[in-house]
Structures are given as C-alpha cells and as structure tokens.
Write a structure and sequence with these properties.
The complex is a heterodimer of chains A (about 500) and B (about 325). Chain A has about 500 residues and is mostly helical. Chain A has 21 helices and 2 strands. With about 325 residues, chain B is of the alpha/beta class. The chains are: A mainly alpha (about 500), B alpha/beta (about 325).
C-alpha cells in the first residue's frame, strides 16, 4: 500500500529516542502551562521558539505540538478545582466542572475530561491522517487567487467569531494588517514605513510580535492579576469515573470529537471556539438541560473533548495549505519557517518524515497525557503553589535571551519589550492579541496574493470569479458579512409584527 | 519537584544559548599579523536564514576548514535586507581576518537595478578572499503546458512568469529573455523557490526561472519541463536542456557566492585564509554536499571575484538599459 508506507515510516520517526523525549517534554510542558493560569500555550510556544532553533526540525515541531494539545488537558485542572481557567479553551469547563468539584466529584470531572480529551485527540489524529493528504492533493489548485480569498476569510472569521467584542477584534485585525505592511514591498522591493532604517527593511519578524504580544504581554498581565491570590487546591478524590459517568458522557464525547474536528480546521476556529460550541451543543442535546450549570458531566466531557480534537485538526490547514487557522498555529507557522521549512502543499510529499512524524507523535502524546492526567494528576495540582513572582521574571529573562539568538540583533530585543508593553496595555483594556497576530501573519499573505492575482488577471477584479475555488470562498465571505445583520433585522421586524 | 526540574531544563537551554553566543562574539583583540593568524576562532557570517544554499555551503566550508586553519570556525546567520545587514556589519569591523562573510553576487549586480540606495555596500568596502560556488537557473513550464520548446513559449503573447522574488537572478534572467525576444510578459514574484515551483506545478503561471537544485527533481520525475538554462554551458543535472544562448537568445544569468572580508585586510592574512579555504573545498565531504545540492564550483582567487562582479554589474545595467527594462517599477 503506497498510502500507508509513509504513515508507518512516520511511526519509526516517532519512536526514535530523541523524538520520544521531545514529545514527552512537550506534553509535560503543555500540562504545566495548562495548569498555570496566565501563561497560555501560544505564549509558551512563542517563548520557546528560539530554543527550538537548535533542535532538529521534526523533534522541535513534535515538542511544540505537544505543548499545544497538552495544554488542553492541563487547562481543565484549574477550571475544575478553582474555577480559574488555565486556558481560554477551558473557560466553559469551569461552569459545570467546578460545580461538580463543589459536590465532591472533582475526580470524576477531571477523569472524564482526560478520557474525553484522549478520545477527541485520537479520533482527530486518525481523521487527520486521511484528510490531510487529500487536502494536500488538491492544494496545487490553490494559487494566488485562492490564497487571497482564504486569507480574507480567515481574517474575517477570526474577527467576527472570536470570543471578545467584534468591534475590538476588527480594530486589532486592522492594526495587524497595518503592521504587516512594514518593510520591503513584497513585489517591487521598495521600502515602506521603515523610516530609513535597515532594521525594519524585512518587516517586523513574526517571532518578535508573537513573543512580545503573547509572551511578555501575558506575563506582565498575569503578574498583576495574580498578585495576592493564593490557590488552595481542594482534594481531588478518585479520578477514575464510574460506569454511570462514562455512560452519561458517551454521547457528549462523540459529539465533541466531531464538533472539535470540524471547527479546528476552519480559519478562525480552534480550541476555544470549539469548546464553546460543544457546550452549546450539549445543552441542546441534553435530556435535562436544566442540569447544566449545576454539575452536568456532559458540560465537561463535550467541551474538553472538542478542544483537544480542535487542537489536533487545526494542524491540517497549516501543514497542507500553509494557512494558520488560529493564533497558536500562526506561531507554529513561525516555528516551521525558523527551521527553514515553508509549510505548504508540497510538505507531505517532500518531507514525509517530518509530516508523519509530527502527526503520529500525537498518538503517543495523547497516551502520555492520559497517563499524566489520571494517575499523576496530584503532582500537577501541586504546581499551583509556585509563586508568579519567581516564575515571571525567569520567563522574561529566557524570552530576552531567546529573541536575541534568532538574529543576533539587539534592536529586536527592544522591539519585543516595546510590543510586550503594548500587549499588556491591550489586555488591560480588553483587546485580545489573537486577531492582531493572525491578521499580521495573514496580512502579508493577503497583500502579496492579491497583488499577484492582479498581475495574473491583467488588473481585472473579475478574474477572481473565473477561478471556481476562489469564487466559492468569496461568495461565502459575502454571505458571512450580509446574512447575520439581515436575519437580525428580519427577526426584529417579525417581532414588531407579532407585537 | 516536577516544576523545578523543568525550570532547570529551561535555564539549561538558555545557558546553552548564552555559551553559544559568547563563543560567537569573538571580535577585537587580535593583531592583524599574518604570522600569528589565526590565533582564535574565525567567524563566517551568512547573510540569509538557515537552510538556503549560502547557509549550506558556508556550514560545509566551516566544518572542513577547521583542520587546515587550526582554529574553530563559527557560522553566524544574520539575515536581512538581501544581505545588506550582514554586509554592513561585517565590512565595518576590523580587517583582521576573524570576521568574514559569504556574499551573493546578486546583491551587487542585480540589487542596484532594483532600488536606488545611496547607502548600498560598494565593492571597495570589501577585500575579496575567494570565490566559492555558482548556481544556474533553469526556465521551467508545467508538464501539461502546450509549450514544448523555448521557441513555442516565445511565440506566445501575454505570458505570466513566476520569479523567486524581486531582485533575484530568477527575475532578471526572464526579464532579459522576454525583453530580447520582445514578448509581452508580466512577472509574478513569489517568496523564494518552493512557492514558485508550487505555482508552476499548479499551472498558475506559464513559466518560471528557478535554481537547478529546486527544478531538477521535478524535471526528472516528469512533472515539469525545462526549456532552457541560463548558464554559459549546459548543466550536469539536465544534460538535454539547451542554454538560452544555444537557442539564439544571448542571456546569461547565474548566482555566485564568495568569501569577503572588510576592506584593508593584510595580504598575508588573506593568502593564509584563502589557502585554508583551498584545502577545505578539496575535501570529499564538501564536494559531496555541492554535488547533492546541484551547486557548481567557482573556485577563483579574490581578484577574479572582483572582476566578475564588476563585469556582471556593467553587463546587466547595460542590457536592461538597452532593452528598456525597468526592474524598479517592474512593468
């Protein structure tokens, strides 16, 4: 079988001792940052980017991927025990999870979350194995016109479907687009907004934006918000869910896998959104929706399964099209570029070892995480006692050294600290860095693809509609912009008529 | 307990980085005296990200040069502004032979045609130590393309051609070819070789000029067809593909890489370094790397490097002027 031989070879890559070690390191780090409120997977991956520079590419990406899905496991712990979500993607878990903890069923909640995460993650990897080569197969049809439409769709979705206010998200996306224009014009090579400085000629390095806004910004913010708060961790009890718990969660885990997998692929989707949608789905599907908010186990199982499935499936657009679906994937994109690998349609064919090594490492990672979340959970709960005053300065120090090692450039360190302060202020007034960072990444893709398209179409905008995939995507974009306000005003009118 | 060990690991990583850094920044101190040279590590600056062919060649060179040099060789990547950032940094340092850079011909021969930069690196800012490598470009079309030969392609009208970026030999070679042949053609620049190849494979552009290393395997597997190479003679990897000159279009564009030090490097230091490079490039490991990456040898002395750069600069400027090709506006 031609299809399976690279897949099987990929397992050979995973089981090399070095790669296994980085997989273990990644998921352990992921669990840790998941547990620690304030430091998210995006920030952690951003901070570790320069360190990965000296690691072999496959091992580096295996580790970073482990951090991402590992954090989905860890984030649950604080959500359930303290009602303090370790991750944005575990916010909804706090609702019923913490309620269960107060009823003395913390163990069951954590156990079912771990099992759900494991199933969601594993189902998503299996689906990924079959879907990704398929997408890569027709990815050659993706040219400048299609990338223009896809980038536009991604920026639009991340600003409108995000978790915060839409207006703020759109504002942030705009800033991201503007920042992306700094540097050499991608087609003509003339310099723009560089103020005569050679340092800005190549634009602002994505790594610096990510480390500044996510890394430094989040650390500063968490220092402030955690001051004086001590974390009394309640006892966990048995983490092995009862037969009844499992029976009640079966449906939720199945639905969560599906919701997570699909939303993870969509641009602008990802772990956070899928967990929220999964919670809503469970509430709709439940026989006793009134139990939600009062410790319904489905309210934990559904979202926790979904966020892990989404964390896995969001690798599909990145590894096959070179399009990051969410902010964390955008940073992963940066990690690949740093290793001299441009993710795109040719990756599966040209670097099968890397591709299948990373994909298959997720099976192993999920098994490791299941082991860590069930028998070893007590160890991770203890981490909550580490003081932010020790952790934060240390992390900043590592970040500063890290950013210098990328280009050996002192200017970059100042730039990152500056962006870190901006990131802190943004968070303080309720602006999420996510849309900015994603728009920053997709901005250069959008601009250069659009201008390439214009050259291909002899300057005619109508050329886009001669390309079936691009035309379909553009119609979808139009519908997204037009339909919601329209249906809202229709509903208003109907209400008026009824009244 | 668990946490502290992980922090330990992170710090370990950071410390490693610091050690690596201090090993890199070995500037100042040494006297530029030929007899004592080298008394410490020599730093080779690469003006691109890791992974490209300049990086590959430099790393292979650094590995093989440690023995003849008798001191460690350290490779530092300093990407940015098409090599200008690295060049400005290295060529403004002390000319003592401890900091050299591996530079591309395109920065000096094609760059000035693209952007007027009064602050650009001049040939007089450098001491040329040694030529290293030459890479050719091939003009490719998709296998399914109706254009079977260069003649077919140049008989077409309103072509769209992919280039690997602004200011590259890929762009210049095609701009000159279509200019000489008087064919209306629009350049579509992509970010480097891989995306350009993807666009040709997908039939998004009619043709593209890419480096042999990037084209060879797709041509050999039958997914792309090579219509011409832009070197002075045919290339080993594609023996059946004629040069543009053979086909009647006198367009010769290639990429060359060389080792340069700051201006004013003492002649005895230069000779010593060049001698060590000679021994390094004769090793089988170095040769193997060049071969597997389809990189040609251009192992000439420093003076000849200068002659070639001056010649390329003048020729390209004269040709573009004569054909009325404006690379800055690109249309």
């Amino acid at each position: 079988m031609d299809f399976f031989s690279p897949v099987i070879a990929g397992f050979g890559v995973v089981f090399q001792p070095e790669n296994l070690f980085y997989c273990l390191l990644g998921v352990t780090l992921g669990m840790l940052v998941g547990v620690l409120p304030g430091l998210g997977p995006a920030a952690t991956i951003a901070i570790l980017l320069p360190v990965t520079y000296n690691i072999e590419p496959t091992a580096a990406i295996i580790m970073l991927a482990g951090i991402f899905y590992g954090a989905q496991y860890g984030g649950t712990i604080t959500s359930v025990l303290l009602r303090l979500p370790g991750e944005a993607s575990s916010v909804v878990t706090a609702i019923d999870g913490h309620e269960m903890a107060r009823q003395g069923r913390a163990g069951s909640a954590l156990g079912i979350a771990a099992i759900g995460s494991f199933i969601g993650g594993t189902v998503a990897v299996i689906a990924l194995t079959f879907v990704a080569p398929l997408v890569a197969g027709f990815a050659l049809d993706f040219g400048p016109a299609e990338y223009t439409a896809l980038a536009l769709l991604g920026i639009l979705l991340v600003s409108t479907l995000g978790t915060g206010s839409t207006t703020k998200s759109i504002l942030m996306a705009t800033v991201g687009l503007l920042l992306a224009t700094i540097g050499q014009d991608p087609l003509a090579g003339t310099s723009r907004l560089t103020f005569g400085s050679d340092q800005l000629l190549d634009g602002i390095d994505f790594v610096i934006v990510a480390m500044g806004l996510f890394g430094v910004g989040e650390i500063l913010y968490s220092l402030e918000s955690l001051r004086g708060k001590s974390a009394p961790a309640p006892s966990v009890g048995s983490v092995y869910p009862s037969r009844q718990d499992l029976g009640e969660s079966k449906g939720a885990i199945t639905r969560g896998s599906l919701v997570g997998f699909i939303l993870g692929i969509l641009p602008g989707g990802g772990a956070t959104m899928s967990s929220m949608v999964a919670y809503a789905v469970e509430k709709k599907a439940a026989k006793h929706p009134e139990r939600f908010g009062k410790g319904a186990i489905q309210g934990v199982a559904g979202p926790e399964t979904a966020n892990n499935a989404a964390a896995t499936s969001s690798f599909i657009p990145l590894l096959t099209l070179g399009i990051p679906a969410n902010a964390t994937m955008a940073i992963m994109f940066g990690a690949l570029l740093l290793q001299g690998i441009t993710p795109g349609p040719l990756l599966v064919q040209e670097k099968p070892d890397l591709f299948w090594g990373v994909v298959n490492s997720m099976y192993v990672g999920n098994i490791l995480l299941l082991a860590m979340s069930l028998p070893l959970i007590g160890i991770f709960v203890k981490i909550l006692r580490i003081r932010a005053a020790i952790l934060a300065p240390l992390t900043i120090l590592i970040t500063m050294i890290g950013v210098y090692t990328v280009r050996m450039n002192v200017f970059d360190m100042f730039l990152m600290v500056g962006l870190g302060i901006v990131g802190y202020l943004m968070k303080k007034v309720g602006f999420e860095p996510g849309p900015l960072v994603l728009a920053f990444v997709l901005g250069s893709l959008l601009e250069s693809s659009f201008r390439r398209s214009m050259r291909l179409f002899d300057g005619q905008l109508t050329g886009f509609f001669g390309q079936p995939i691009a035309a379909t995507l553009l119609v979808a974009i139009l519908l997204i912009i037009v339909v919601p306000p329209l249906s809202r005003s229709l509903r208003k009118q109907r209400r008026k008529v009824a009244a | 307990m668990r946490m502290s060990s992980t922090i330990g690991l992170r710090i370990g990583g950071a410390l490693l980085a610091v050690v690596a850094l201090s090993a890199c920044s070995v500037k100042g101190g040494g006297a530029g005296d030929g007899a004592a040279y080298p008394s410490k590590a020599v730093e080779f600056t690469v003006p691109t990200e890791p992974g490209g062919s300049t990086d590959l060649v430099t790393r292979a060179l650094a590995k093989s040069i440690e023995k003849p040099l008798g001191k460690p060789a350290v490779v530092v990547n300093k990407p940015g502004a098409n090599g200008k950032i690295a060049g400005k940094d290295v060529f403004s340092s002390k000319p003592d032979g401890y900091r050299v850079a591996v530079m591309p011909q395109s920065l000096f021969a094609i760059g000035p045609l693209m952007v007027q930069d009064p602050d650009a690196i001049k040939l007089d800012d450098m001491t040329f130590v040694k030529g290293l490598a030459v890479e050719d470009y091939a003009l490719v079309v998709p296998a399914a393309s109706p254009y079977k030969s260069l003649k077919d392609l140049l008989a077409a009208d309103n072509l769209k051609y992919g280039t690997t970026g602004a200011g590259t030999g890929s762009q210049l070679s095609q701009a000159l070819l279509f200019g000489v042949a008087k064919v209306k053609a629009t350049p579509v620049p992509f970010d480097g070789g891989a995306p350009t190849i993807t666009a040709v494979l997908g039939g998004k552009v009619d043709a593209a000029s890419v480096q042999i290393a990037e084209a060879a395997k797709h041509v050999q597997s039958g997914k792309l067809r090579a219509l011409a190479v832009f070197g002075t003679k045919r290339v080993e990897a594609l023996p059946d593909v004629p040069t543009a000159t053979e086909s009647g279009y006198d367009v010769v564009v290639d990429q060359r890489r060389f080792v340069a030090a700051p201006a004013g490097l003492p002649a005895d230091v230069r000779d010593k370094l060049a001698g060590a490079i000679d021994k390094a490039i004769a090793t089988p490991e170095y040769g193997e790397l060049l071969k597997s990456n389809y990189i040609g040898r251009w192992e000439v002395g420093g003076d000849e490097v200068k002659t070639q750069l001056t010649k390329a600069q003048g020729e390209f400027a004269a040709l573009t002027k004569k054909l009325g090709i404006d690379l800055t506006g690109q249309q």
